[in-house]
Every structure is written in structure tokens, then in C-alpha cells.
Automatic annotation (TrEMBL):
<feature type="region of interest" description="Disordered">
    <location>
        <begin position="45"/>
        <end position="68"/>
    </location>
</feature>
<protein>
    <recommendedName>
        <fullName>FAS1 domain-containing protein</fullName>
    </recommendedName>
</protein>
<dbReference type="InterPro" id="IPR000782">
    <property type="entry name" value="FAS1_domain"/>
</dbReference>
<keyword id="KW-0732">Signal</keyword>
<dbReference type="InterPro" id="IPR036378">
    <property type="entry name" value="FAS1_dom_sf"/>
</dbReference>
<feature type="signal peptide">
    <location>
        <begin position="1"/>
        <end position="19"/>
    </location>
</feature>
<dbReference type="InterPro" id="IPR040200">
    <property type="entry name" value="Mug57-like"/>
</dbReference>
<feature type="domain" description="FAS1">
    <location>
        <begin position="67"/>
        <end position="214"/>
    </location>
</feature>
Length: 217
């Protein structure tokens, strides 16, 4: 029973990775056969231990849904599966979301919010003005895109949970954020970003779904 649920989770997370690769990652992640092959084989190897072997298994013999971590559940919500893919691909974030000892509030923008950004989350206008059209070609371009994607994603990771109203917290990206309630909705500041819903509450934190992306510049 547990295994089939885990296999399902794994399949969903693999689909999310594929979705994020196809929709938003730079060409070199999509087009290079060597890279694609290594991603295909690496992701399962990296993800299986996280999903099939909950870290708290030995300490908590009666492991129920209480023992699930954010990394176990974030891939289940289809409306945020692009951002979920980013959290898995960036090692600082994936380690944190799998760590039972560190609580996190993940601010996950809807797929539609990512798709309507004026630029891709791995692009930086400064790279284009310094380096031109070839800013993301070759190994150094790939490194640049990876760094930008990390900065974007870390700006959406709040290293506390529960996160109280009005509490100003520095994200993993370094910016300060807080939230206010307005007509029953939660609004993230700065930027007036509305929380559409809270997708999950698990042992090491919560996943909040955002209608827009936070400013990460
Ligand atoms: C971490 O989250 C759990 C579950 O929500 C909570 O009981 C616990 O107090 C939190 N720990 C800290 C340090 O905030």
C-alpha cells in the first residue's frame, strides 16, 4: 500500500520535472541528448531515497501522514508542478524540504504565474546586456542560468513554519517578506501577492500557492 503510493508520488514528481524542463528551462537542458540522459537517470536515483525511505522512519514506528515531509507532497499539486520541479533540482532547497528538523513555508507560484513572467526565471536582463544573445550558451551560460534559477527559487523559500501574520522573515534568497490578512485572504508583502490556498501542511512545514511570483531581482 505504502509502496504504491510512493510509486505514484514518484511518477508525479517525474512528470513535474519533465514539465519544468519542457516549459521553462533553457535550451541546453532540453536539446542536449547527453544532458537529457543524465537528468533522466539522475533524478530517479536522487528522488527514490527521499520518497521511499522517510527519514524519520526509525524514530517514529507509527509513521502516518504526520511523518510526511514537504518533499513528499509538493509534487502532488499539479497547479504548481513547475515550481515543484525547481525545488527538486536545486540541492539546497531539496535537502531542506526533506529535512525533518528544519521547518519551511514554501511560497509556490502557480504554473500560470511562472508562464506569464516577462522573462524566464533563469534569465537576467543584466546577463543579456553584458553578454548579448549568447549569455546562456556553453558551460558558463549554463552555470549562469542555474545560478539565476536558484536565486529565483530561494526567494520563495521562507525558513520558518508556522509563519505568523506580520512576522518579517528573510527568505533563503535574502529578501525580507511578511504577510497580512485582508478580507479573509493572505497577502504576501512586499508586492501584494495573494495566496490562493494552502496546498499542504506536513511535519516540516507548509506549501502555500501564490497567484503571482515574488520579486526576486
Ligand atoms: C515545526 O513544525 C511543527 C509542525 O507544524 C511544529 O509543531 C513545530 O513547533 C515547528 N518547530 C519550530 C521550531 O517552529
Amino acid at each position: 500500500m505504502k509502496t504504491s503510493a510512493s510509486v505514484l508520488l514518484f511518477t508525479v514528481s517525474l512528470q513535474a520535472s519533465i514539465a519544468s524542463t519542457q516549459l521553462l528551462l533553457p535550451n541546453f537542458f532540453r536539446n542536449s541528448p547527453a544532458k537529457a540522459a543524465s537528468r533522466d537517470t539522475q533524478n530517479p536515483i536522487m528522488n527514490i531515497p527521499n520518497i521511499l525511505v522517510p527519514p524519520s522512519k526509525d524514530d517514529e514506528p507509527s509513521a502516518g501522514s504526520d511523518s510526511l515531509s514537504i518533499s513528499d507532497v509538493i509534487g502532488k499539486e499539479r497547479t504548481i508542478n513547475i515550481f515543484a520541479g525547481f525545488t527538486r533540482d536545486i540541492d539546497t532547497i531539496s535537502k531542506r524540504l526533506n529535512d525533518e528538523k528544519q521547518n519551511t513555508t514554501v511560497l509556490a507560484p502557480l504554473n500560470s504565474a511562472l508562464q506569464k513572467l516577462p522573462r524566464k526565471p533563469w534569465e537576467d536582463p543584466e546577463d543579456y546586456s553584458a553578454l548579448g544573445e549568447k549569455a546562456y550558451e556553453g558551460q558558463s551560460g549554463e552555470d549562469r542560468a542555474t545560478r539565476n534559477l536558484r536565486r529565483f527559487s530561494e526567494a520563495h523559500i521562507v525558513p520558518v513554519s508556522p509563519w505568523k501574520e506580520g512576522e518579517k522573515v528573510e527568505t533563503l534568497g535574502g529578501g525580507k517578506v511578511w504577510w497580512e490578512s485582508k478580507d479573509g485572504d493572505r497577502i504576501i508583502q512586499p508586492g501584494n501577492i495573494e495566496v490562493s490556498s494552502i496546498a499542504s501542511r506536513v511535519s516540516n512545514g507548509e506549501v502555500w500557492i501564490l497567484k503571482e511570483c515574488l520579486n526576486y531581482a
